[in-house]
């Protein structure tokens, strides 16, 4: 019964997303949405994937990683090599971008995830910079002048990747495996003492997060015509971090909402280049002053929808109001 | 298991941190079903000893074995899966998680559904999660926590948090339960409830329990045997009566008599 209801909710959402994407595609084809809006829409999509993937690492598992742009870069370059150098189709490039980033996540995750808190942050920051410098010095992929990439990212690919990212991360979080990750965030010593293989789950969260960052990298590379190592520096990592923090650490819907809102704000502010960063920073400062826990705190949108039902006594708990 | 083979056997175990010998030469045996106390003045190394048993620290000397299995050098999560579960001196709950989820986490290592089945929401995910939830609720009923199971653990009153921590430790289905000062900060009435609870779970789960405690009333009341640790060394063992009259123990607690 409950299972059926849940499945209905799931498919209902999917149908809505499909309708939304078809309508958007028609608007793009019909020219109602000009290229400015289309670009914004694509940036939003890519930022949602990035925010959701970092949310899994920081918000759910509590590992303060600030080298996310490194995974983005690995994904971008790996996918660009696949399409531009090897001439393989775009879907292969998306998967290869994700896989390359996931492997990078594994290699980086095993040694660095022994570190905690600020030490981990510094180590991952270092990783991001190393990736940038390495790409800067490989001539095969253009070095400092960057690599030109054909525009292959289309709306259906983008929306499909966004949906898959969200579904996978939400499914992971709302399962015993996600709970294991949350228990690490809450108290690593206790999690370890309760039989949770903390290293395994930290690395697992890192790999899944890195994979989707790599997917975002592939979409990003094939959207902007050119990729250059300096675009994947620590500033980019902080941009992603800000999305997760503003959304509310531990809230998936928060990360998504923040990704949408901040992308829109920063796009519209680009008409006022001289005050853009000032206003953007002000938004962040005001936000942190008045709502330090982030837009959503650690709650999910679904918990607000369920609030009414639960109050009537029909308490059904699916982990969503406490998990993440 | 016969009475002859001890459940837990600790032989000459010690650990040094640099030049400091925190625990040395501890020999201890626990038989199946026993309730044993570990006491000692502050800083005697009791919690360090627990940390050695649970793998938080790796002993620099000696052997720890559970049944026939050697535990030295195993990671804490593996030791938990082998059957030693513990609570902490300063409560370590998953405070943002609900009471129910706290217990579910302890069931994690017994879960049968894989990450892939959870990602794809295969039937095994739903059946696995459902089984966990039912088991966890059953458990909370034993501990009279089912009425607060959707509360965040951090919002529980202190006594209930202690109970929840014990419930969580037991949910991992241990053979041996280590309780680190379970009565710390409790009033006499709560302590008494705790004593009853310990007696109840011991019977119900046919557990072996080792507990660290400062509350002598509790220790003398429930423990069959007591080990006394001072300056990292065992100075006495025996039944409560023997311990109470042991001059070494009195000396450790009250200091030497001035002659």
UniProtKB/TrEMBL annotation, chain A:
<dbReference type="InterPro" id="IPR043428">
    <property type="entry name" value="LivM-like"/>
</dbReference>
<feature type="transmembrane region" description="Helical">
    <location>
        <begin position="240"/>
        <end position="265"/>
    </location>
</feature>
<feature type="transmembrane region" description="Helical">
    <location>
        <begin position="120"/>
        <end position="142"/>
    </location>
</feature>
<keyword id="KW-1003">Cell membrane</keyword>
<feature type="transmembrane region" description="Helical">
    <location>
        <begin position="65"/>
        <end position="84"/>
    </location>
</feature>
<dbReference type="GO" id="GO:0015658">
    <property type="term" value="F:branched-chain amino acid transmembrane transporter activity"/>
</dbReference>
<dbReference type="GO" id="GO:0005886">
    <property type="term" value="C:plasma membrane"/>
</dbReference>
<dbReference type="Pfam" id="PF02653">
    <property type="entry name" value="BPD_transp_2"/>
</dbReference>
<feature type="transmembrane region" description="Helical">
    <location>
        <begin position="9"/>
        <end position="28"/>
    </location>
</feature>
<keyword id="KW-1133">Transmembrane helix</keyword>
<feature type="transmembrane region" description="Helical">
    <location>
        <begin position="203"/>
        <end position="228"/>
    </location>
</feature>
<feature type="transmembrane region" description="Helical">
    <location>
        <begin position="40"/>
        <end position="58"/>
    </location>
</feature>
<feature type="transmembrane region" description="Helical">
    <location>
        <begin position="90"/>
        <end position="113"/>
    </location>
</feature>
<feature type="transmembrane region" description="Helical">
    <location>
        <begin position="277"/>
        <end position="296"/>
    </location>
</feature>
<protein>
    <submittedName>
        <fullName>Branched-chain amino acid ABC transporter permease</fullName>
    </submittedName>
</protein>
<dbReference type="InterPro" id="IPR001851">
    <property type="entry name" value="ABC_transp_permease"/>
</dbReference>
<keyword id="KW-0812">Transmembrane</keyword>
<feature type="transmembrane region" description="Helical">
    <location>
        <begin position="154"/>
        <end position="173"/>
    </location>
</feature>
<keyword id="KW-0472">Membrane</keyword>
From TrEMBL, chain B:
<dbReference type="GO" id="GO:1903805">
    <property type="term" value="P:L-valine import across plasma membrane"/>
</dbReference>
<dbReference type="Pfam" id="PF12399">
    <property type="entry name" value="BCA_ABC_TP_C"/>
</dbReference>
<dbReference type="GO" id="GO:0015192">
    <property type="term" value="F:L-phenylalanine transmembrane transporter activity"/>
</dbReference>
<dbReference type="InterPro" id="IPR027417">
    <property type="entry name" value="P-loop_NTPase"/>
</dbReference>
<protein>
    <submittedName>
        <fullName>ABC transporter ATP-binding protein</fullName>
    </submittedName>
</protein>
<dbReference type="GO" id="GO:0016887">
    <property type="term" value="F:ATP hydrolysis activity"/>
</dbReference>
<keyword id="KW-0067">ATP-binding</keyword>
<dbReference type="GO" id="GO:0015808">
    <property type="term" value="P:L-alanine transport"/>
</dbReference>
<dbReference type="InterPro" id="IPR051120">
    <property type="entry name" value="ABC_AA/LPS_Transport"/>
</dbReference>
<dbReference type="InterPro" id="IPR032823">
    <property type="entry name" value="BCA_ABC_TP_C"/>
</dbReference>
<dbReference type="GO" id="GO:1903806">
    <property type="term" value="P:L-isoleucine import across plasma membrane"/>
</dbReference>
<dbReference type="GO" id="GO:0005524">
    <property type="term" value="F:ATP binding"/>
</dbReference>
<dbReference type="GO" id="GO:0042941">
    <property type="term" value="P:D-alanine transmembrane transport"/>
</dbReference>
<keyword id="KW-0813">Transport</keyword>
<feature type="domain" description="ABC transporter">
    <location>
        <begin position="8"/>
        <end position="256"/>
    </location>
</feature>
<dbReference type="InterPro" id="IPR003439">
    <property type="entry name" value="ABC_transporter-like_ATP-bd"/>
</dbReference>
<dbReference type="GO" id="GO:0015188">
    <property type="term" value="F:L-isoleucine transmembrane transporter activity"/>
</dbReference>
<dbReference type="GO" id="GO:0005886">
    <property type="term" value="C:plasma membrane"/>
</dbReference>
<keyword id="KW-0547">Nucleotide-binding</keyword>
<dbReference type="InterPro" id="IPR003593">
    <property type="entry name" value="AAA+_ATPase"/>
</dbReference>
<dbReference type="GO" id="GO:0005304">
    <property type="term" value="F:L-valine transmembrane transporter activity"/>
</dbReference>
<dbReference type="Pfam" id="PF00005">
    <property type="entry name" value="ABC_tran"/>
</dbReference>
């Amino acid at each position: 019964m409950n299972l059926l209801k849940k499945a209905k909710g799931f498919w209902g959402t999917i149908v809505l997303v499909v309708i939304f994407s078809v309508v958007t595609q028609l608007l793009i084809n019909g020219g109602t949405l000009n290229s400015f809006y289309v670009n914004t829409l694509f940036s939003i999509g890519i930022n949602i994937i990035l925010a959701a993937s970092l949310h899994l690492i920081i918000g759910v598992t509590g590992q303060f990683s600030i080298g996310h742009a490194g995974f983005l870069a690995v994904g971008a370059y790996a996918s660009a090599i696949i399409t531009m150098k090897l001439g393989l189709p775009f879907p292969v490039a998306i998967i290869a971008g994700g896989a390359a980033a996931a492997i990078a996540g594994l290699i980086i995750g095993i040694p660095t995830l022994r570190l905690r808190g600020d030490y981990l942050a510094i180590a991952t920051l270092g990783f991001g910079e190393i990736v940038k410098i390495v790409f800067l010095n490989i001539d095969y992929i253009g070095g400092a002048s960057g690599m030109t990439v054909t525009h292959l990212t289309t709306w259906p690919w983008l929306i499909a990747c966004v949906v898959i990212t969200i579904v996978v991360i939400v499914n992971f979080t709302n399962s015993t495996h996600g709970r294991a990750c949350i228990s690490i965030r809450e108290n690593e010593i206790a999690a370890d003492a309760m039989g949770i293989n903390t290293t395994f789950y930290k690395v697992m969260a890192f790999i899944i997060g890195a994979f989707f960052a790599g997917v975002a990298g592939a979409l990003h590379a094939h959207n902007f015509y050119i990729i250059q190592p300096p675009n994947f520096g620590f500033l980019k990592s902080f941009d992603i971090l800000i999305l997760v923090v503003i959304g509310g650490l531990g809230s998936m819907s928060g990360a998504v909402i923040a990704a949408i809102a901040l992308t829109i704000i920063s796009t519209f502010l680009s008409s006022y280049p001289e005050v853009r960063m000032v206003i953007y920073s002000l938004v962040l400062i005001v936000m942190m002053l008045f709502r330090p826990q982030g837009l959503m705190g650690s709650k999910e949108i679904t918990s607000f929808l369920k609030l009414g039902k639960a109050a009537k006594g029909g308490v059904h708990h699916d982990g969503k109001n406490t998990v993440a | 298991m016969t009475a002859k083979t001890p459940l837990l056997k600790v032989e000459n175990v010690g650990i040094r941190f640099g030049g400091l010998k925190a625990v040395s030469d501890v020999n201890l045996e626990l038989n199946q079903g026993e309730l044993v106390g570990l006491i000692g003045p502050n800083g005697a190394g009791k919690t360090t000893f627990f940390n050695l048993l649970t793998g938080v620290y790796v002993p620099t000397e000696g052997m720890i074995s559970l049944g026939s299995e050697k535990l030295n050098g195993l990671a804490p999560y593996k030791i938990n899966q082998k059957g030693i579960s513990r609570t902490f001196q300063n409560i370590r709950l998953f405070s943002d998680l609900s009471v129910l989820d706290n217990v579910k986490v302890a069931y994690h290592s017994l879960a049968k559904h894989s990450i892939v089945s959870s990602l794809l929401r295969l039937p095994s995910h739903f059946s696995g999660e459902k089984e966990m939830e039912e088991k966890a609720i059953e458990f909370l009923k034993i501990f009279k926590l089912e009425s607060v199971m959707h509360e965040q653990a951090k919002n529980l009153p202190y006594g209930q948090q202690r109970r929840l921590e014990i419930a969580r430790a037991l949910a991992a289905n241990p053979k041996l339960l280590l309780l680190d000062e379970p009565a710390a900060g409790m009033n006499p009435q709560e302590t008494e409830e705790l004593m009853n609870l310990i007696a109840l779970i011991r019977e119900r789960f046919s557990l072996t329990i080792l507990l660290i405690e400062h509350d002598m009333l509790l220790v003398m009341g429930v423990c069959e045997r007591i080990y006394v640790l001072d300056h990292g060394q065992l100075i006495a063992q025996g039944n409560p009566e023997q311990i109470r009259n042991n001059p070494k123990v009195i000396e450790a607690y009250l200091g030497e008599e001035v002659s």
